[in-house]
């Protein structure tokens, strides 16, 4: 078991606290079923360093884990890691968590580039991402929340105090997924062909309410995998059974 | 944010993406900070094939770093030219953009950078 990064500095009133979903990602990405797959996608020494992107890293626990344990997970330590979060407090938390974890594991650690504030992958050049990790807002809700204007510009400037309403909004943004809990995830799935490099792979967390079998079918049917290739989508990690169904699962998405 | 990140970023405005002038973004009023990172020649050699060299050269010049050659160095160049290796290492692996702005060459939108975090959220009229 690789050690979990410390997140004791993270303000949990403003940033999603690591929970069962975060830990399922850690377990899955470092599992004996995934690490040989990742090393085979990015053979060390003969291929350029992979760029790892986490969308919505929150506390940064997953991105810091991948950064600090690059060598055991990817069989190489020359990886680059990047986060993009809509919540500026999550960006600061992810930066601190990742730099702390990297400095605690200097012999196995990759290179943390930074965490940007942004709306999904809108600011990225096309086909740069080799590993995309996304623990989305997956809970089905009536409405999809939007970021309050006060928090668009960092939110810290008005006396350094975040209002109770804004605090609630930030946490709502971290879990509320709109219809079927899929409104944000669907945007990411639709962008995969543009965001992932040709050798790229995505790890996406889904809950039972997201209708994961239908989601996987939809991905396999996407027509933009490139000539002679098809999208693959397979469940590679699960946790918590509920009425015979897996409560949470990690779906791996790639082209073959 | 490490300066290397700029090689992966473009303007978040959809209509700018088709224009080559939306990449790289141009730093303005930049405040930089430097980390002490051990030089790893193999990392730089592996990294070069995935970088857009022309954009990197622009970024390097705009941030006041030494002029980079017009074409990307070969592995042999890097192994024999210690100064070039050190310059690249310092620019890519050690330098962080802490404060300032990133400006799109097409629409002119300025993305603010504060405490090392650039903000790519667009005002509603640009979404």
From TrEMBL, chain A:
Keyword Secreted: no
GO BP term, example: methylation
Keyword terms of this UniProt record: Methyltransferase, S-adenosyl-L-methionine, Transferase
InterPro entries recorded: DNA_methylase_N6_adenine_CS (IPR002052), Euk-Arch_PrmC-MTase (IPR052190), SAM-dependent_MTases_sf (IPR029063)
Highest rank taxon of the organism: Eukaryota
SUPFAM superfamilies: S-adenosyl-L-methionine-dependent methyltransferases
Cellular component GO terms held in the UniProt record: eRF1 methyltransferase complex
One GO MF term: protein methyltransferase activity
Keyword S-adenosyl-L-methionine: yes
Stored PANTHER family: METHYLTRANSFERASE N6AMT1
UniProt family annotation: Belongs to the eukaryotic/archaeal PrmC-related family.
Protein name in UniProt: Methyltransferase domain-containing protein
Organism of origin: Apiosordaria backusii
From TrEMBL, chain B:
Protein name: Multifunctional methyltransferase subunit trm112
InterPro entries in UniProt: Trm112, Trm112-like
Locations listed in the record: Cytoplasm; Nucleus
Source lineage: Eukaryota, Fungi, Dikarya, Ascomycota, Pezizomycotina
GO molecular function: protein heterodimerization activity
Keyword annotations from UniProtKB, A to Z: Cytoplasm, Nucleus
Family as reported in the entry's similarity comment: Belongs to the TRM112 family.
Any one Gene Ontology cellular component term annotated for this protein: cytoplasm
Keyword check for tRNA processing: no
Principal localisation: cytoplasm
């Amino acid at each position: 078991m690789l050690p979990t990064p410390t997140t004791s500095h993270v303000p949990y009133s403003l940033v999603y606290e690591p929970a069962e979903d975060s830990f399922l990602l850690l377990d899955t990405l470092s599992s004996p079923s995934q690490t040989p797959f990742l090393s085979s996608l990015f053979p060390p020494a003969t291929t350029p360093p992979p760029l790892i992107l986490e969308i919505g890293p929150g506390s940064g626990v997953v991105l810091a884990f991948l950064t600090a344990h690059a060598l055991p997970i990817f069989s190489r330590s020359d990886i680059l890691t990047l986060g993009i979060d809509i919540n500026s407090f999550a960006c600061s938390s992810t930066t601190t968590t990742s730099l702390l974890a990297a400095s605690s594991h200097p012999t196995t650690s990759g290179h943390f580039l930074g965490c940007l504030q942004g709306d999904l992958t809108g600011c990225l050049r096309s086909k740069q991402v080799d590993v995309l990790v996304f623990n989305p807002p997956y809970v089905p809700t009536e409405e999809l929340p939007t970021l309050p204007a006060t928090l668009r510009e960092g939110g810290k400037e008005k006396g350094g105090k975040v209002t109770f309403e804004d605090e609630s909004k930030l946490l709502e943004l971290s879990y509320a997924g709109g219809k079927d809990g899929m409104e944000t995830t669907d945007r990411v799935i639709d962008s995969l062909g543009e965001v992932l490099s040709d050798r790229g792979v995505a790890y996406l967390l889904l809950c039972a309410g997201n209708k994961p079998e239908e989601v996987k079918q939809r991905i396999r049917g996407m027509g933009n995998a490139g000539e002679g290739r098809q999208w693959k989508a397979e469940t590679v990690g699960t946790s918590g059974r509920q009425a015979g169904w897996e409560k949470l699962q990690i779906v791996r998405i790639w082209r073959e | 944010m490490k300066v290397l990140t700029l090689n992966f970023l473009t303007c978040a405005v959809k209509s700018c993406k088709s224009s080559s002038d939306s990449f790289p973004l141009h730093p303005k009023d930049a405040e930089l900070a430097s980390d002490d990172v051990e030089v790893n020649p193999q990392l730089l050699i592996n990294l070069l094939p995935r970088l857009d060299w022309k954009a990197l050269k622009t970024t390097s010049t705009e941030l006041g770093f030494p002029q980079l050659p017009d074409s990307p160095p070969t592995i042999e160049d890097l192994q024999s030219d210690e100064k070039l290796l050190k310059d690249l290492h310092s620019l890519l692996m050690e330098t962080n953009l802490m404060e300032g702005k990133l400006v799109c060459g097409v629409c002119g939108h300025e993305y603010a950078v504060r405490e090392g975090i650039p903000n790519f959220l667009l005002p509603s009229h640009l979404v």
